[in-house]
Amino acid sequence: MSIEIADAEDRPEPVTDADADADGTDADASSVRSTAEGGIVAQLRLDHPRLFLAPSLRRAPDVTVEPDYWTEPEPGRTVVFVTAHGTDLEAFEAGLEIDPTVTDPVLVDRYPDRLVYRVTLTDRAVTFTAATAAVGGRLLDCSSCRAGWQVQLRFPDRDRLVSFNDYCRDRDVSVTVDHLRVSDEDDDGVVALTDKQQELLTVAHEEGYFEVPRGISQEELARRLGVSKSAVSQRLRRAIGELCAQTL
């Protein structure tokens, strides 16, 4: 798939105060610098032996982990809350105890279909969220995939995406591109669904989930795919939201 991305000189000139006055627009309506127009959405798979939680994920490939949020309770200490669901949570938990990318793992919540942990990042962990923000990117979605992470990132332009790729290359982080979408009027229409979202939507459609009455429930979809009901619910919501954003 080839995606054409316009160079800077081909893009429309910014609106000046004079232009705004001429067409009756209030030039001072917003003084906030904007990168909302255009941009690139990239669906990537990242892999590295010391990527955040990668050692634990390698021990439990059937477990899916999704970060809830992270915070810095004190300078130099980053705490991350993650939700884990799957069929081998014991192996994942055992991995946390010896994972060099995290320390002080604590089980903070237990649900019938998932567990929530709090971990503290170590200085041996390779991360990508700060690098994403540093080049002006935004994290849209993130979940584990076997030994690494599948992420959906939005960058203001091609150069920022290249900068992020350079960051990963300099740290020997493997980057696999699943989808690219240009987020402007020249959008080629490629919807950046993750592989897991595509699989879920395919099974849901084939089994009549969207029919009335439904041919399959979320619980049955979860059992069919070997994931939790909450994972099915979240993936359906994100996938349908992405489809709506690109077609409506």
TrEMBL record:
UniProt-annotated stretches for the region Disordered: 1-34
Record carries keyword Kinase: no
CDD domains: Sigma70_r4
Biased composition annotated in UniProt, kind: Acidic residues: 16-26
Domain HTH cro/C1-type: 214-234
SUPFAM superfamilies noted in UniProt: Sigma3 and sigma4 domains of RNA polymerase sigma factors (SSF88659)
Domain of life: Archaea
InterPro entries from the UniProt entry: BAT_GAF/HTH-assoc (IPR031803), Cro/C1-type_HTH (IPR001387), HTH_bacterioopsin (IPR007050), RNA_pol_sigma_r3/r4-like (IPR013324), WH-like_DNA-bd_sf (IPR036388)
Family annotation (Pfam families): BAT, HTH_10
Keyword list, A-Z: Transcription, Transcription regulation
Entry keyword Transcription: yes
PANTHER family: DIMETHYL SULFOXIDE REDUCTASE TRANSCRIPTIONAL ACTIVATOR (PTHR34236)
Protein name stated in the entry: Bacterio-opsin activator
Taxonomic lineage: Archaea, Methanobacteriati, Methanobacteriota, Stenosarchaea group, Halobacteria
